[in-house]
Design goal:
Number of strands: 0
Order of helices and strands: HHH
Structural class: mainly alpha
Length: 90
Amino acid sequence: MARHAEEKVLCSRRPPFINTRDHSISSPSFARPIRLTPQQMEEKRAKGLCFNCDSKYGLGHKCVEKKLFYIDEGNEDDEEAEIIEEAEEP
């Protein structure tokens, strides 16, 4: 009876996952974010240009090239760890 139950469980298992991804190919490098200076922003504003794609900016403007924007808020855990380490030191 136990052997029958064991065979049933073994038959219903999925085959193990085999990662076939080639790790020798490096991931694509991403361009570093560009931060405009206040002078550059003022120039673009005066010329009526988009801050992101340098084309004319107007109502309903959409940049030709799609970009991904993100905000990196840092790692707060590091600050907490430093505070804890300082408190533990004699």
